[in-house]
Amino acid sequence: MKLQVKGITEGQPIPETFAFGVYSEEDHMSFGPNRNPEVEWSDAPAGTRSFVVMMYDPDVPSVADDVNQEGKTVDKDLPRVDFFHWLLVDVPADTKRIPEGADSDGVIPKGKKGGPGPIGIRGVNTYTHFLAGNPDMAGTYAGYDGPCPPWNDELVHRYYFEVHALDVDTLGLSGEFEGDAVREAMQGHVLASARVSGTYTLNPTLR
Asked: Which NCBIfam families match (predicted)?
């Protein structure tokens, strides 16, 4: 199975077009265009009945005490956890492409709705938790919301775009399901997978 993410070269920096946050000299970070990139896949195996599309960052600090704090840095050796940026399940078997901007075009304060979207069913991404304490932004964030790593992180973050071909029409997920629920529901149903990775940082010393 093959996957292409238009505009992203394997292992190279992700363009700001696809980012939730972009570097700002005055304020460290400002909102980015936050468009989902175009993804296209091919060579799915016989028997494929649906797809899962996901994007996640495995490099998010496990402790957020120093995140985006003036005069502090997030140590590169701090243990890291997954942060899900995009979850689409029950993508029909005849779908081979998601156009740029189809699932996200701009930052939407308080988030986008989950459930059936333009393509497949949207799961809830981790911004739902990350922004829960911000009264201007708190809400349920579903579908795609792009990179916005801590601007004081010593580590350049990696981002994995994945497509999984499944042997079932539906994972049976509903409500505000998240990444771990998707991974658990996929177990035993994955026929093939493909991945493209990129990097992103808002730390001016690493850019």
From this structure: YbhB/YbcL family Raf kinase inhibitor-like protein
- How many other C-beta atoms are found inside a 10 Å radius of the C-beta of residue 65? 9
- SS3 of residue 53 by DSSP: strand
Residue 192 within a domain: yes
Quote the DSSP letter at residue 202. Answer: -
Q: What is the pLDDT of residues 1-42, one digit of tens each?
A: 999 999 999 999 999 999 999 999 999 999 999 999 999 999
pLDDT at 207 over 90: no
Q: How distant, in Å, are the alpha carbons of 41, 68, 93 from that of 47?
A: 16, 46, 9
Domain holding 80, by residue range, is: 2-200
CATH code, 122 = 3.90.280.10
Average pLDDT, the chain: 97
Report angle CA 6, 57, 21 to the nearest 5 degrees.
70
Tell me the CA distances in angstroms from 196 to 57, 87, 182, one per residue in order.
12, 15, 19
Torsion sign over Cα 135, 173, 62, 149: negative
**How many domains, in total, are found in the chain?**
1
**Inside any domain, residue 205:** no
